[in-house]
Specification:
This protein has nine helices and seven strands; from the N terminus they run αβαβαβαβαβαβαααβ. It has helices spanning 3-6, 22-33, 45-56, 72-86, 123-148, 173-194, 212-215, 220-227, 242-249; strands at 13-17, 37-42, 62-66, 91-94, 154-159, 198-205, 260-263. It has one domain (3-261): Rossmann fold (3-Layer(aba) Sandwich). Helix 2 crosses helix 9 and helix 5 (123-148) packs parallel to helix 6. Strands 3-2-1-4-5-6-7 form a seven-stranded parallel sheet, sandwiched between helices. With 274 residues, the protein is an alpha/beta fold. The structure holds nicotinamide-adenine-dinucleotide. The site of nicotinamide-adenine-dinucleotide (NAD) has 27 residues, from helix 2.
Length: 274
């Protein structure tokens, strides 16, 4: 088989959660550009309308549904409707997530932030992040498995983070727990579903320019500063994640399951500041 043929997703039915912006939008783009039929689930109705129209205008098969991943019944209905429409569900990206905004130190880790300290971390904030970034991933994997298992095929990809493996102290405790939990949940699902030829993997991005955290990474000055913390000396754009997304969605990755693949410009290695 020619290498290019291994990456074919033509005609696949795909769902991407949190795909109206940022990393999820990049996943939707690369799938649709390569011939998949893509349904984007997101809470941001304006963003969904704008981005799905933009992609349809390119001639790609993309639709949007306003769905909150914390509403598990609505999520199930969206999966049922989409799988019914396509007659198949081949690929699911469990990507929707939020960044709670503050940790116990500033984002550059140079000073303590009392509001982010554990003794001041309130239940509402903790529960919101776990509800979305962990429970939402659980509900998404469950909904996908219900459609993929009878067909004995499928690809599930979870967006985790560098924070699944090391503490990003400027972001906050619940995000660390949710992302580490999502990574291990991915492994549990991978083992359980392997017998049914469903692979479950994770993409763990590093610092990526998106609208997360009120869009703080959109600022060029921030990009330059954060880029210096990265061995490759730049932050990622969503383009940097597309190749891996297509790989994990396509036949090219058919013998890979339970893997968390890091796309972080080398941050896991540590850094030298020469
Ligand atoms: N940007 C980074 O540096 C970075 C790094 C590591 C991991 N991530 C992860 O990447 C994923 C995508 O984040 P992003 O950076 O692209 O952010 P983003 O804010 O640009 O996009 C997130 C999307 O998720 C949607 N969303 C939020 N809550 C939702 C809900 N309850 N139901 C459905 N959709 C919802 C938002 O409307 C938005 O369209 C998240 O899981 C995030 O934790 C981001």
């Amino acid at each position: 088989m020619k290498a290019a043929d291994m990456y074919k997703v033509d005609g696949y039915g795909a769902i991407v959660t949190g795909g109206a912006s940022g990393i999820g939008l990049g996943f939707a783009e690369v799938l649709a550009e390569n011939g998949a039929r893509v349904t984007v689930l997101d809470v941001n109705r304006d963003g969904l309308d704008r981005e799905t129209k933009r992609l349809r205008d390119k001639g790609w098969d993309v639709r949007g549904m306003t769905v909150d991943v914390t509403d598990h019944a609505a999520l199930d209905r969206a999966f049922d409707e989409t799988a019914g429409l396509y007659g198949r569900l081949d690929v699911c990206f469990a990507n929707a997530g939020i960044d709670p905004g503050i940790g116990f130190v500033s984002i550059d880790r140079t000073r303590r932030v009392p509001e982010g300290a554990i003794e001041n971390y309130d239940d509402a904030r903790w529960n919101r992040v776990i509800e979305l970034n962990l429970n939402g991933v659980f509900a998404t994997i469950r909904a996908a498995a219900r459609h993929m298992k009878p067909r004995r095929s499928g690809r599930i990809v979870v967006t985790t983070s560098m924070a699944a493996m090391e503490i990003e102290a400027g972001i906050g405790a619940a995000y660390m727990a949710a992302k580490a939990g999502a990574a291990h949940l991915m492994r549990n699902a991978a083992l359980e579903l392997a017998k049914y030829q469903i692979t479950v993997n994770a993409i763990a991005p590093g610092w990526t320019i998106t609208n997360i955290g009120a869009g703080w990474m959109q600022d060029k000055k921030v990009q330059d500063e954060v880029g210096q913390w990265v061995p490759l000396r730049r932050v990622a754009s969503t383009e940097d994640l597309k190749g891996l997304a297509l790989f994990l969605a396509s036949p090219a990755s058919s013998y890979i399951t339970g893997a968390q693949i890091v796309v972080d410009g080398g941050c896991q290695l540590g850094n030298v500041f020469d």
